[in-house]
Design goal:
There is one protein chain. By secondary structure, the protein is an alpha/beta fold. It has three domains: about 60 residues, no CATH class; about 220 residues, Rossmann fold (3-Layer(aba) Sandwich); about 170 residues, Alpha Horseshoe (Serine Threonine Protein Phosphatase 5, Tetratricopeptide repeat). About 50% of the residues lie in helices and about 10% in strands. It has an eight-stranded mixed sheet with strand order 6-2-1-7-8-10-9-11. It is globular, with a radius of gyration of 25 Å. The termini are far apart.
């Protein structure tokens, strides 16, 4: 049976914004054939007429077309930002006793909103019902039914340690049942993000998560959806979009903000935020509106090691300082780097201690030690470790970059510039050092120098084979496309400033 997909694609886009092209067209054709058979309608024209007049049938069709790809503690670094930065800030700003309201928009089968509850439960314990209210919304009614049941299989726990499952789930054969203390915290609603208006119950949120959903919409539709979500936010509220999607969703609806190397959108005034201590070592900390984090909640329990090493560790597990067993000395630098990439710094430092006991002057061990200390904000210790490595290898690009970063976070700008310039002198192709130089020049009011370095980075990263930047040990995890975006973004801003200055 040949089906003209065009009228169905148009109707679906009009009603819920979904774009069904490419592989989506194949799925649409398959699902339409199924529904025509199930409804016992003779052909696609009859089914289309029936679909236009039946909201139940349209819902059944959409349920089959939506993709419910999700799992617990997805993009764990954003959950860390939520528990350690955004929520404490909002709680400090609260002038009444009403709970903070958090919405998971496009929540699918519920893993995301339940992850939010568990993350905050680990941080705030029995105060969660008093402090927070959670909502999950999705257009797929079948997915919502599964979310309400709180029943999941092993596939939903990719990267989650056994301890978290044992704490919040009861196992029944192949299935895991979410404990009522978590399941009862989330209220689920049918929610069409493309709707012209929303019920009163879906207004007045402090934080909205809208992650890994926008890829199914074109740009005009995404803008409409963002406008809708912005209307559901309270003043000073936050909109979190998936890490791989956020930049592409900077559509002018809400200001784009960067904090701890992550991007999100804010409905509030950035100037209202509280200044903070220096950030952790992360490449992406250098664009858009830098937001400082309050340190008033540092006495709250720091809970760690929920996730297995395949996912960066989120501090949402036991409310005690972790005990790190001394590792077996039969391991390599590669294994230490893996622990650093997973942000398991306690385990990595324990391994470094063993390696340095065996070989006190090992450059790689000293560099990784400095890397860990920098992430712990132990800037003077990081500098000492990097200098020790530099004594062994005076041309170590890793050591020069580390020293530049340590100086930068201590606001020793001239010293930071000197270290990064040395790295570029030692290796002209060190695009990472050149990026940091550009960032310092921009912040220091030297736009010509900043433009030169940003353009240099773009030139290096645009080659068919990206040049070796000379960094041998540091597990930076830099994504070239993201770095190119940052340079392009800053060059555009510098260009705007130059044009405005020319008009004066």
């Amino acid at each position: 049976m040949t089906i003209d997909l065009a009228p169905f694609q148009k109707l679906i886009k009009q009603r819920c914004g979904l774009i069904l092209e490419g592989i989506g067209e194949e799925k649409l054709a398959t699902v339409l054939a199924q529904r025509i058979t199930v409804t016992r309608l003779g052909n696609s024209a009859e089914y289309y007429f029936h679909l236009q007049g039946s909201s139940d049938e349209f819902q059944d069709l959409v349920n089959l077309l939506t993709i419910n790809e999700t799992y617990f503690f997805r993009e764990v670094e954003q959950l860390h930002l939520l528990t350690e930065r955004l929520v404490p800030r909002l709680l400090m700003q609260r002038e009444d006793n009403q709970p903070l309201r958090i919405l998971s928009a496009g929540c699918s089968t519920g893993e995301e909103p339940y992850s939010l509850v568990m993350a905050l439960r680990e941080k705030y314990g029995d105060d969660v019902p008093r402090l927070f209210s959670f909502t999950g919304g999705d257009i797929d009614t079948q997915a919502l039914a599964k979310a309400r049941s709180g029943r999941y299989n092993e596939f939903s726990f990719r990267g989650v340690a056994a301890a978290i499952k044992a704490r919040y789930f009861d196992q029944d054969g192949w299935a895991y049942h979410l404990k009522d203390e978590i399941r009862n915290r989330v209220e689920f609603h049918e929610m069409n993000l493309f709707a012209e208006e929303f019920p009163a119950a879906l207004h007045g949120y402090d934080i909205i998560f809208f992650r890994n959903v926008s890829i199914y919409f074109d740009t005009p539709t995404r803008r409409i959806i963002q406008q809708n979500l912005a209307s559901l936010l309270n003043d000073n509220g936050y909109l979190m979009i998936g890490t791989a999607e956020t930049i592409a969703n900077d559509l002018g609806v809400l200001p784009l903000v960067e904090e701890d190397g992550l991007f999100y959108f804010s409905k509030g005034q950035h100037s209202a935020f509280v200044p903070a201590a220096a950030p952790v070592f992360d490449l992406s900390r250098h664009v858009v509106a830098k937001v400082a984090a309050p340190d008033h909640h540092e006495n709250l329990p720091d809970v760690r090691s929920v996730l297995s090493p395949v996912v960066p560790s989120l501090p949402i597990a036991e409310c005690v300082e972790p005990t790190v067993a001394l590792p077996d000395p039969c391991f390599s630098i590669d294994e230490v780097q893996q622990q650093c990439r997973a942000k398991r710094y306690d385990e990595a430092m324990a391994m470094i201690v063993v390696l340095l006991e065996r070989n006190p002057g090992d450059t790689s061990s000293l560099l990784l030690k400095a890397h860990i200390q920098l992430n712990r904000k132990e800037f003077e210790l990081a500098e000492a470790s990097a200098r020790q490595a530099l004594q062994t290898d005076p041309w170590s690009i890793d050591a020069l970059v580390l020293l530049g970063l340590a100086a930068k976070w201590r606001e020793l700008i001239g010293e930071a510039v000197r270290w990064f310039k040395q790295a570029v002198y030692a290796r002209h192709e060190c695009w990472l050092a050149r990026y940091y130089l550009a960032d310092l020049y921009r912040a220091g009011g030297e736009p010509d120098k900043a433009r030169r370095e940003y353009r240099g980075v773009l030139q290096l990263l645009s080659q068919s084979t990206v040049p070796d930047n000379g960094i041998r040990v540091l597990p930076l995890g830099v994504v070239h496309s993201e770095l190119r975006f940052l340079c392009t973004h800053q060059l555009a801003k510098l260009g705007d400033q130059q044009r405005m200055a020319g008009r004066k």
